[in-house]
Design a protein that fits this description.
The chain is of the alpha/beta class. It has a single domain, classed as Spore Coat Polysaccharide Biosynthesis Protein SpsA, Chain A. Strands 3-2-1-4-6-5-7 form a seven-stranded mixed β-sheet, sandwiched between helices. Strand 1, helix 1 and strand 2 form a beta-alpha-beta unit. The longest helix has 22 residues. The two termini are 25 Å apart.
């Protein structure tokens, strides 16, 4: 715990057998109270490995529900277990677990209710080997989103995120897509609900075992990002009313 707040790390897993143990071993268990792994119908030995290394809370999807669907199960379980600070960490070792204490501290001190690890601050993306097309795609999308949403994030596309319980109980994340656009919709919901987001420089690694979407998936994702940003823009001006922006509790 940190300032009497229960800290839970959630691992949305899919075919993470090769990297799960290394990721798990670097989680700071002197601070983290619980770890939840949600396996999205992996075809490798992710589940067996998770049990073998001692992860207590494991959820196994009978069918593949997608990246967003996986996270919905993660956050539902984290709230059920009484998590006050919930940190989403990819088990593919693309992001370092060593930033967990810093991310948790910012939320525990009530400085910001959300912290994301930015690959763009400090040039972490290029140093880590992010493909050039993904880097420039990221920059173009982020610029467009900042304009449409009147924000100033360095990037919207990182998968390393920490949330206060209040945020997860306020936004309607269950209404989001079950696919990769879930992450982007979640940030739009957070801003729409009036929460602020802190960014932290985060190194990243690109290697064969790290999960990554291909070019065609990236294009589909980009369309989804712009749809989300325009939806936010129109919703803020009262021109449309979408379920994903419903606030559950203030």
């Amino acid at each position: 715990m940190l300032k009497d707040r229960k800290i839970i790390v959630v691992l949305p897993a899919y075919n993470a057998e090769k990297t799960l143990e290394q990721t798990y071993s670097e989680i700071p268990f002197d601070l983290v109270d619980e770890v939840i792994l949600v396996d999205d119908c992996s075809t490798d030995q992710t589940l067996d490995l998770a049990r073998r290394i001692g992860i207590r809370h494991i959820i196994s999807h009978d069918n593949n529900k997608g990246y967003g669907g996986n996270q919905k199960s993660c956050y539902d379980k984290a709230l059920e277990l009484g998590g006050d600070i919930v940190i989403m960490l990819h088990p593919d070792y693309q992001y370092t677990p060593k930033l967990i204490p810093s991310m948790a501290y910012i939320i525990a001190q009530d400085i910001y209710p959300v912290v994301i690890g930015s690959r763009i601050l400090g040039r972490g993306a290029k140093k880590g080997g992010m493909p050039a097309y993904k880097y420039y795609f990221n920059r173009i999308l982020t610029l467009s989103q900042n304009i449409l949403m009147s924000q100033k994030l360095s990037e919207y596309h990182t998968g390393y995120r920490a949330f206060s319980r209040q945020v997860l109980e306020t936004i309607n994340y269950q209404a989001n897509s079950n696919n990769f656009i879930f992450d982007n919709q979640m940030l739009a919901q957070i801003f729409y609900a009036g929460f602020e987001i802190a960014e932290m420089t985060c190194p990243t690694k690109y290697f064969p075992e790290a999960s990554s979407i291909n070019f065609s998936q990236s294009m589909k994702y980009g369309i989804g990002v712009m749809t989300t940003s325009w939806s936010y823009f129109l919703q803020k001006r009262g021109l449309i009313k979408l379920k994903i922006f419903e606030v559950k509790k203030i």
